[in-house]
Structures are given as C-alpha cells and as structure tokens.
Amino acid sequence: MEPERSVKNPPVSRKPKAVYFSSTKPQSEEIHATNGLVGSIIEKGFSSSSSSSSNPPNPSIISYPQPTVLPFPVARHRSHGPHWNPLHVEPEFEEEDDMDETDYSAFASPIKRKEKKGLDFSRWRNFVPQSDYGFSKHSEENNKILATKNLPCREAFEEVVQGSSEPLVAVKRAKASSHMVDDEYGTQLSQSNSAGLPAVATGKLDNNGGDTEMLMSNKEGFGSTMEDIHAENLARLKQMSQEEIADAQAEIIGKMNPAMVAMLRKRGQEKLGNRKVVASGHEKGVHEMIESDEISGKDNVAGGSPSQGVKSTGMAAEHADWVSSEQVNSNSWKIWSERVEKVRDLRFSLEGDVLDVDSYLVPSGCKQEGAQPDVENVAERDFLRTEGDPAALGYSIKEVIALIRSMVPAQRALALKLLDSILNKAQFNLLNDKGWLDAKNDTASNHVDWQAIWAYALGPEPQLVLSLRIALDDNHHSVVLACAKVIQSILSCDMNEGFFNVAEKVPAIQRVLCTAPIFRSRAEIDSSFLHGGFWKYSTKPSNIIQSNIDNDDEGVGEHTIQDDIVVAGQDIAAGLVRMGVLPRICYLLEMEPIPALVECLLSVLIGLARHSPYCANAVFQCPRLIQNIVNISTMQGMMELLCQIKAITLLKVLSQMDKRLCLNFVKSGVFQQVMWHWYRNLNTIDQWVESGKEHCKLTSSLMIEQLRLWKVCVSYGYCVSYFADFFPNLCRWLSRPTFNKLLEFSVLDEFAHVVREAYVVLGALAELLPCLHSTDQLIKRDTDHGDDFVETWSWSHVVPMVNFAISWLSLNDIPYVSSMTRCFEENDIYNSSSSSIIWVISAVLHMFCCVFGKMSLRRADDENNSTSLPWLPEFVPKVGIEIVKNGFLCLKEGKGCSFIERLCYLRHQDDFDMSFSSLCCLHGLIKLTSLIDDCIQRARNACDIQLHTESSFDIEEGKVIAEGMIKWGRDDLTGVLDAFGSLVSAEWPMVQYLEAFGRGGPAPGVGVGWGSPCGGFWSLTVLRAQEDARLVLELLENFPIVLEIHLASIESMNPLVLESPNPTNHVLHRINCVLAICLVAGPAGRDIVEAAFKVLFQPPVLKYLGLFLHRFLQLDKRLKSFKWQYEDKDYLLFSKILNSHFRERWLSFKTKSSGDAAEHTKKHELSRKTALLETIHEDQENEEILKLSSKDTVFSSFCIEWIRQRLPVPEHWFLSALCGIGELKNFDSNSSNELEAAKIGLFFLLCLEASSLTVVSDQKSPIFNVSLVWKLHALSMSLHANMAVLEDERTRDVFESLQELYGKQLDKSRHKAEHKFSDSSSNLSETRGGICSEILSFQSQINDSYSTFVEDLIGQFGAVSYGDIIFGRQIAIYLHRCVDFPIRLSTWNVLSNSYLLELLPPLEMCFSEADGYLEPPEDKAQILEAYAKAWTSGSLEKAFTRRSLGFSLALHHLHSLIFESVSPDTLKLRNKLAKSLLRSHSHKHRNFGMLLHLVKYKLPIPEDPLHGFELIRRFDLLVEICERNSSLIAVVDHLKSVL
User: Fold this and answer.
1) φ, ψ of residue 791 in degrees (nearest 5)
2) Residue among 907, 927, 918, 897 nearest 818 (CA)
3) In this predicted model, what pLDDT tens digit does every residue of 1002-1015 receive, in sequence order?
4) Half-sphere exposure of residue 180, counting CA atoms within 13 Å on the CB side?
5) What DSSP letter does each residue of 442-496 carry, written as one string?
6) Total-model pTM
C-alpha cells in the first residue's frame, strides 16, 4: 500500500513531462505536484493526460505518470493504474540497406482504456444550459434517450401518467470515458437507471435555440447516429403543441394496465406530498444542490440537501411489505431467497439503520443490478472532506465491503465500523424477537427484516470473509482494530459468551454446545421420509486447514482463494481458520498491541475455539499462540485484568473441547501459571471490599474464570490435589460474611458471584468422591491417584465443606432472602442482589446433592430401593433439619409462605436472571429433599437412633425427617408439578420452530441461532424451558403419573364420567406434559429425553392409556369398540420394545468404523492431503449407527457436537415405530422386533390420539399439532413392505380405528376450510379446489419425490393385498380431493395402468365422506384426461361392475365436466373428452352401460317434472358436441332409444 503524500507545491501545468532516455545512460527526474487536489491527497492512479510543471528541452519520449485527482481518494485495483505511456526508446540503427525509414508513429493510435458502462455526467454543464436540468430515461421501444425536467426519472413518469400539463424538456446525456475528470467542479454524477419506463418527453423548448445548437456542436460526448436521433427528437418536440403532447400522454396511458396506472398515480401523489421541500429543491436542480458548496461555497438553494431525500427506518413504508405473515411462517426456500435478495438494495446509515433513499439520489454506478460495486462509484458521491452530509445516501452492504479495500485508511476504518454497526444491530434485533417481520407488529424496527440482512451479509455473495482477512493484514492499527471488532460481531462472541456464562451457572449443565453451523441429512425413503435426520457440519472438518502450510505433495492441488471463499460461504469460522487468521492473530499479539485490540483478538479466538473441536485443535496447534495466551494471563496490573480474564476463558474453552488439551495444560504447568491468584496471600474480605467497587468487579471476574477452569480440570479428574493449596484462600469465600459492609460498598453481587463458583467447584469435586461405605473414609486424608493424572477426592475434606455450606441454609439473616419466607407483600422489591444470593443458595444445594448422591447410589437392579445403608453420617439429618427449620417447605398451614412457593412466584417474573436463578434453586431444593429422604429411608434404624439422641432437634422436625420431607410437603410439590407442567406444555413450540430448511438456522454464521429469531438454540428462553423440563422430570420421579388408584378408578369408571373434570384428565395432562418435554430437549438435553422416555413407557402408564382407550371407544359411538384387552404381561413387553426402539432411533450416535475413528482421532494433526475441498456425502458406507449413552463420552470432552446425532426430535417422533418396518433397508430382513414395534406403535398411536382429543387445556397437545399428512403417511409406511401388521386381528382393529379417526379429522378440516371461504366473492369452486389441496399436501410437506413412494405402495397393494378393504382404503386416500394434484394424478395413472382400479373399495366404504372425493369438481385437465383414458382403455370396466371408488370418481368428474361445466376455458376440453367417450363405444361396443350411467347420473327422479327436460338437455348437448359426426350421433341416438 502506497502511503499518502502531502503536496504543498504551487499549481503547475498538467502537461505530461517527457524525458529522453539514452541507450547508454538513463535519466530520472522528480515528479512534481499537481494542482486541484482535494484534501491534499494524491491518488495512486494516474492519468495519461496529466502534465508536469516543467517543459524539458527535448521532445517527449516517455512521460512520467501524474496523479489523477478525484473528489475523494479512491481505492483502485491494480488494473486501474498507475498507467505509463508506452516506452519509446531511441532505436539503435543498424547498417542495413533495406531499412524502412517511414515514421509510422503518426498513424498509430494510443491504446484506450475500456470505457465504463455507466454514463458520466462530470461535464454535464458543458452540454446543458444553466436553466435546464434533467435525468435520463431509457425506452424499451425505440431506445431513444430522453430526459425529464425538474423530477427524478420515477417521479417524472408518474407525473406523465397523471396527465400533468406542465411540459418537460428532454436532454441528451453524453457518455464520458472512465478517465474523464471535471477540473472545474471536481465531482462526477452518474446517470439514474430508469430502464423499463416508456420514453416520454413533453414540454416546450426554450425559445432561444442555444440548447440545440450547443448539443449539436458538442462532438466529444455523442456519436453521429445518436446525435441525429436526438436532434430529430428535439425538433419533433419543438413542433408539438400542448394538445398533441396531451394526446401522446393519453395514448401511452391507454396502452398500459389500468391497475398499474392507478398504482403509479397513487405513488406519485404520496411521493410529491411527502417531499415538498425536496421538490422545490429540484427546481434549482439536483446537481446544483449537491455541487453548490464545492463550486461557490454558498448555501444550498431552498434547503436542498441530499439528506432531505432520506427518511428514517420508522417511515420506511416501502419496506413494510417485504414479507407477509404467511411468508414469515412458511418454510419455503423460494420465499426465503426472495427475502435475502431484497437486502441487495438496502442502504444503511453510519449507525447501522436502514435508510429509505430516493432512487434518483443514488448514483447509477452504485445501483446497477447484478453488478459488483466499484469503490470509485461509491466515492464519487462521498464528500468526507467537504461540507454537507456525506453519509446521507447511505451504503449498501456490497459497497461497504468494497470500501474495505480502499486506499485510504480512514475510509477502510469507516467501512469496517459501519459493517460492525449493521451486524450489531442485526444481532440486537434478532435476540429481541424483532429480526423477522410480522404483520401484527407495527413498530419501526419490525419494518426491517434483520434476519435476511444477517443472512445476506454472512452469505457467499458479498465475500465478506475474504475482505476481512485482507483488512486484518493492514498496517494501520485503527483498521486492524475495526476489522477485529467486525470478526467479533460475525462470530457473535459477546452474545455467545453471555449465553455460556448463564449456562455455566446451572449445576445440571456440565457440557457446552459447539457453535459450528450444521444441517440435517436429507430425509429419504430408507428413513421413512421422517424428519430429524443426523446433523452434519456445513463444511467438512478436513476443509478447516491452515493456508500457510506448504503443500509439496505431488498430485495434490494447491490452495486457491476460491477454495477459501467456498469454505467461508459454508462456514465463516472455518473459512477464517483456513485463510490463516490464527498465525496473523499470533503475530499481532506478539507486537504488544493496545489492550482494546488484545481483548478483541482474544474474543475472536474464543469464538473460533467454541466452533468445534477441530477449530480448537487448530488454535492449540498454532505455533507460539498458546504461550502468548499464557503470558497475557499472567500479566500483573489493573489495566491488564480484562485481557487476563479473556485469556483464561480461552484456556477454559480449549480444555472443555478436548480432554487431551486439558491434560497438556496440566502437564506443561499452564494451569499452575494461570491460577497464580489463588497461591497468593490474599487480603481479608474486608480489605478486598475496601479496595473499591471497580477493583472488586474485575478481580471477582478473574477469580470466577479461574475457578471455572479448575472445575473443568476437576471434572476430568485432574488437579484434585490442588484443593489443599487453594483451601486457605477458598475458605474466605465459602463461609458466610458480615453482609453490612458488603451492602455499604455495594459489592454484594461481586462477592456472591465468587461464592457461587466456589461451591460449584466443590460440587465437581464431590462427583469424584468414592462410594461411602465406611467411617474410616471420613478420616482418611490421602487422595487416590489413577492413571493419566486422574485423581479422586477424599471424604475427609467433605465434613468441613458441609459445615460451611450449612450456614447458608439459615435464610433469616441473609439480605434480600429473609423476607421470602414471609407472606407475599405488594411492596416486595427484588433486584440483582436478590438473584445473586439465590444463585449462591442454588450452588450450595447442588453441592449437597453431589455429596448425598455418593451415599445413596443404587444398583442397576435395585428398582424398589431395597438396598439398606449400614450407617449414616451426622450431617445428613442435620441438613434436613435446617431445610425444615428455615421454611424451605410448607409443612403446616398458617405458618406463612414457604421458600418454595416464593421461588415459584419469582420464576414467573420478567427479569430473566431472577427467574432463572429461582428455577435452578427450586430444582436443587427438590432434588436435595429427595436424596435426603432416600438416604434416611435406606438407613432408617441408624437414623432413628440419631434423631432420638440429638437433643437439639425439635420433636416435630425429627418426625418430618424420619417420615420423609417429600411426604409432608406433597401438596406443595404437586402444585409445583402442575404449574411447571403447564409451562412446559406452552414452551415446546418455540424449540420446534427454530430449524429452517433442515439447518440449525437460516444463516451460516456462528452461534446466536445462526440467524434465528431470539437466538435460536442459543436463546436463554430455550435454556430456561429445558431447565423447566428437568424440574418436571425430577418431580415425576417422586410423584409417578399413574398410581394403582388411578388404574382401579378407570377400570370401574362409567364412560360418561370422562366428560366431567376427574382424575383421568389430571393424569392425561401429565402425559401430555411428558410428550412436550421430549420436544423441548436439544443436543445438550439427551438426559431429558432419556428421562422422559423412561417415564412415558412405564408399564403402568401404557396400561392406563390402554384402559382409557377402551373407555374412549365406548364413549364415541362413531368408532367400533374392541372386544379384546391386553394383559399386564403385554404391557411389560410394550414397555420394553417401545423404550428400545425410540432410544435406538432418536438417541443413537452415528459413528465411523474403528479404522476411520482411529484416523479421525490423531492428536493435533491435519493431513496435508486434505487441501482440496471434499464433498459432503449424505450417506457414507463406512458409517454405522451405534447405541451410546451420554455417560460413555462424558469424560472425553465437555463439548457437545451437533453432528452424528438427531436431537432435537421432530414433532412426529412417535411415528417412527410404525415406519420402521416399511423402510427399504428392512425389506429383506423384517425381523420380529420390527414387526412387533410396528404393531405396538399402532396401538400406542391410537392411545395418544384418544388422549389428545380428551385433554381439556389451553395448550394444544403435541399429538394434535402433528399434521394429518404425517399420520396418514405413517399408516401407509407400515404397509410399504408387506401386510404383516394387518394379519393380526387386534392390530387390524387398531388400524381400522385409526383410519376412521383420521377420516373424521380430515372431514373436519375440510369443512372448516370451506366455511372460511364460503363468503368469498371469487368463484367458489376454484377457491374450494385451491384450499382443499393444501390440507393433504404430501409432496410439499414430506418429500418432492413422494409420488415414487406411492407407486411402490400401489405395487405392493396389487401384489399382496387381494383387494383387502383396509389396504384399499389406505390407497384410496391418495385420490381424495384434498390431496395435492401431482400425487392424485400419479396415483390414478399407476392404478389405471396396472388395472388395479377394481380393487379399490366402494365410495361408501372409504374412511372419509364421499363429498371429500367428489367435491369440488375436478378442474385439472391432466386428471380429467386420465379419467377419460381409463374409461376408453377398459381399466374401469371391472371397477364399473364392482362399483369401486375408481369408477365413481371418473363418473362424477367427467359428468361435471360434460353436463355441468359452463366455463369457456373448459369448452374445448369438454368436447374433446366427450367425443372420445362416444367414439370408444362406437369402436368397442363394451362400455355402453357406463355411458348410460354417465347420462343418467344425478338425474331427477322420474316423477319430477324436470326429469324429462334435463334428459333432453343432455342429449341435445351431446348432439352439439358431436359436430355432425354420423358415427357419434348414432351412439347418442342409441342411448336416447334406450332411455
């Protein structure tokens, strides 16, 4: 990059300076400055026509380049300059006789640069007189170039449409070359792109003919042809009168669509009404308004400033109609693409807001559709070194990215800061649920589709990553800092860290999600077309390579920039790593940059490390990078604390990503270095408080990150022995302080944060305790060491830690918490300190849970909790007494409010931190009470002795502990269960709607939901919903859904009782809640789904559902009740098979084979042979599905990769049991387990359907929310391989009941849709046909190739069904009028060609109303022709004999077409098909009975007087259709004679 040069020399001539070059001695001269520079900046580009200040004595052989002066310094490509004249060296003449001494230089033309496509108006004043100003307009009809006066091109046309009588003047524009410079005005204005508007030019030319003479005489800007055309146009306009001009306007309007004319008139009136000031400015000329300050330094005329043509986002009415609510809710990729493409035209202010910029104010060079923005075009209207508003016109995203490569550092920094503002504003609006459009919202921010803006900016089109990588190599610190901030915004570093910071407060969450963008594997027939496939990375991990690795292997292609761009388009973080950003960051850190840049770079490294284990390994492998991080983390001084915090966070993230990295940090001594703060002799808490709030805030944040790093190491089993070293300093934070001084200095929050993390670390240490089986363990102080530095904690350290923790259970003297055990008061105030204290109590309760969990371990076969404990430590009942004494549970009425009730109240508060802390505390309290009861009940004898000998215990409190706190607080806890069950039932939809197009989000960014509203899977709301689910499951372990009393009640219940509130609905509500919990869990919630399956598939629950189903069938008289019942042993088998199937289907991992796995897990190595981009294959032969539990990999890494697993499960997850038997991979191996799973799955589905129809709730059941399309598809899938499921009598009854149930749901949906459009003013038949096809849209909802599946199913039907009624009814549903057109057509064609139409059941035996198959009449010509083809080919003959559905459909729809159709559009088709039917009988004489039925169909009864008239009308119509064809008329006469 060439540095800027200040020029102070006096103005000189711009004539090129030439210097002779001798053949023996070259000469050099200094380049002199030129005049006319703006801002004293010399461009890097040079003009060939520039001149020097001195004239050499000799003629010019070569000229030095001179700077080209533009209104603003412009970044150019190398091809733009500097351009030197061709080198002409004095020839060395040789002594030859045939030397041609002719000088051809006079005939040679100079090489001209390629002209720009856009027009250049830099010399517009030379062509147009000062009184006339206009803008060009292009005609599609005759390509005449005209211009209007006083109005921009769009508004000019609108004025013409409105019939304005004021004439407009047409002016022709000159097309200047790209190097033309306006020396007088110093600016260039481009043409307005108004292609597509009709060529209209009206008005009176000035009486003075100077206009035409000037234009005709100017030969530089016009070609001869264009001059002649323009001259003719001007002459013609000058001869026209006002009346002729008005006639021309009327003629143009007459040729246009009236709706378009009305729209343009309305828009023109609105524009003119809103821009009166701007319109008055146009009278003085838009160009003059922009240039007036530069030319004469005078004020703008009439206040005409470019900023007046710009409106804020709140008034951006044009953007309000971007997307309708239907489009927002739609998953159509086409609609999403249109939303993203509209971002190209958006312009942004320097603050990142979307501007509504008038089209005439935007230079044409910046508006050319489909063209890459040129930095010169952007700079042509930037006036950063002049007066006015340089950013009034705003910048498009492409222009901003183009300006990142500017020659001027200030311009590069400005572009990067603007881009950072846009991305930050997009993130803010996305997280605040304002990033997508909703017609119901009318706030200003909702007029902008920030979701599409985020996706476009990070997409492949702008090539943002490449520009940022180039900018990071800049030698200006301001540019590098701005670039680092943009990368930080792209990686969503701050937003992600906010999420992970909250997640690490939750003791139940030990693993973190990777942020790498992913996508679902495509649903195929071998997976039953069910959604919820395995996740895959957007780019293969092998593509994440460092670009600085030299590839010397032969036969392997080298890295190219295009490969890097492709990877960056798929995955931004992977593209950055591939482009070598890590070595650059390492170099910047070694150069001792400013702390702000260090902090940004560390945030970027954290974002890259959180991407995936592969990026984390790349960070670790980068030479010298880790050592630089360690050096930063050990710096001393207050100014470096923020950087230290970031550095320790990076080491913690790397340790979470891979256990081997953590072990490396431990072995190399990195852990000891970064934990320096805990080795020091710290001051007392009082001295720490007195050091100041800012110091306390920074040091507390530092200690928190150090403790979290220690917790990660402890969770792997490392660094446990360091507890003895850290214990002295740790004790100061574990014990309860005097709160008065903390409140006085306002540092209670900072203190509570450290205490919380300290107890979380103690909980992690407690997880490493051995099982307590002897009293000697409480005395033994040795720490056991295993292999690879793995250690275990000692019980001897537990007792003092428990004593510290018990002191935090006394709520009466803790600020902000003591009032929570009293009754509710309206003036209760809760602030951040309240939530901080609740977080501390939550951590204490969790630590107790970890300790007590090591005392109540059960064997896998100990279901009844029969294993007894030989003894019980003293602190177990002591903790229980503290819980009872301090009012955690409400054990008596009238003793005030319990702490658990207050926590439930705080959970519903708007403040998230308060709500979430209360939820976690509530979860820990319930879990702890359950563990204490479990320990005491299993060591009852020892517990009784201790309770009776302990004099300090109250007798009543001891009784509560002995009998069980869960039992005494049952009413309190069941109320919590019901309240949180309703919460979870309302929260599951937001998780299910996060996926877009089979991806984790709509944009390939990193984190923040990949562009999803509210943060997507990284939303704190989703995190809280998952914690709600964990709490409900914890309560369900203590309060089972189904008890013996429930089973006895439903067995003896009168079916009519189901209609009133009763325990049945109570149980069904809880089952519905468990179904919702399955949909809430994400990849980090595998434990949630496992626990939900365990609860849902318990034999008592399945038995209750089975008994309820029988009662439901007895209540619903429309359904056939069963004459059989399953026994208890059957439900035990059901529980085993269903649990096994759903765990294998949805909780299994997809892993590579052992050989590939060994290659995949090489330590910190990246093969050089992975330089080329690899294809992401949907299915790889070397991959297999293994059943793994989350516990199998918990100690290898604390990161959760999305890939190779399926969570979150789709809404229709419960249908997989039906579909497993019909998958292609099982065609040859339909094992008994898969067949049994299908049979049981059908029964389970019918039970769920019955329960969902009975539950009375404000929230819909997840079963009811699943589309009917998926349910019908599942039934078809169970028959895809064979009819085995229909061979069993019980399963056959279940299948038939499901068909009847879904038929009624289909009829209900169809009636609802018809009623919705019954009052429509349009054609009712067409409206009904359109809405009906959307109800069962198999092709759009399931798969585009669904017709292939239907063909296979029909083939199976013809091969094995033998006309089975149930199988035939399932095939017949694809001929329903509500099914989408391609599926209906494909189904009919296959049935007709295979002569299987006669196997279909009669119309009255189908499981939907007859009108659903017959109405509305068919309007698709292809299907009507298929009906006629089947009629004439003989496919319907047997169907006619058996009165099957096929003949009924053809008869009804062909009759409607021939005898009832009145549309002129179908007249030709009607005649064609009617002739073919008559001609078929004349040739074959076989379908005469079918023709009789066609004529007699829907005739009035013979007694009706209209019978004869209708019959005559039909025969007359047939005769008319025959068109005097004798053979066809003979057939009609034959029919008439018979009737």
Assistant:
1) -125, 165
2) 897
3) 777 777 778 787 78
4) 22
5) -SGGGGS-HHHHHHHHHSTTTTHHHHHHHHHT-S-HHHHHHHHHHHHHHTTHHHH
6) 0.76
